[in-house]
Amino acid sequence: MPRPIVALIYDFDHTLSPRDMQEYSFLPGIGVAPKDFWGLCRDFGAAHGMDGVLTYMYLMQKMAKGALDLSREALRELGRDVAFFPGVETWFRRVNAIGDGLGLDVEHYIISSGLTEIIQGTAIGAEFKAIFAASFCYDASGQPVWPSTAVNYTNKTQYLFRINKGIMDVTNDRDLNAYTPEYMRRVPFTNMIYVGDGLTDVPCMKMTKQKGGYSIAVHEPDKTETSDDMLLQERVDFAAEADYSEGSEMELIVTMLMKRILATNELARHHAQQMRTARRRRGAQMPLDVKLRGGLIEEAPE
Q1: How many CB atoms lie within 10 A of CB 52?
Q2: How many Cα atoms within 13 Å fall on the side-chain side of residue 18?
Q3: Does the model's pTM come out above 0.85?
């Protein structure tokens, strides 16, 4: 039998990195203070009825002209200066090793309202199986002319289904929306762990939790109000400091969740085998799409 896949899915800004990614190199590069840029984004968006992600992308493009290159390569270069919470840069290697020791394949994904190219250029950009984030469409000279994708807090949830079905191509909506039996889905929701920091992550956190997966709210030291509220409101399963160091509470929680996911998968397989054996003994032809206990998987044809 193939090894179960565990999908760790992260927001980026304020989840893996302490600040918004634009604040590390882009805003210093155009000589604008973060509070001024985000204030302008709020005012401009309100005045024009614009989505927040489209607003910051428009203003980045407009304000960078003549001051900073925004080609794909230049944006990736900006990612080199992005800093991370403690332990993040070794987190992926450690978690992969823990999962491998348990008999699990661990995959990491980003679902972020930030920019794809900046994330790709960071020290951890190569750790992700897929990065679902905002990006530009570029002209023949390599300069951004229009958004190609914009990921806000509500449409983040579609990417959970892309991970669930194994459809990484964001232009492939046909297969995404087609009916797929549970047993044919690549990563069950029960094998997902979503990590985020704030209210914009709530739709993904809640959906993951409701479908049998797990969600974790992270917070900076002594800034627990939002994560405490999400925990008390049962929007998340756990809350932890954004410390990804070896031996941290975050590592402990994820390790325990992976052990639980492994046990759940093993029990589901054992249940499926018992169903097949009982059907053979009884000579009964039961429907092949009988859902296993907990709605984990559907019984696949033999």
Answers
A1: 17
A2: 13
A3: yes
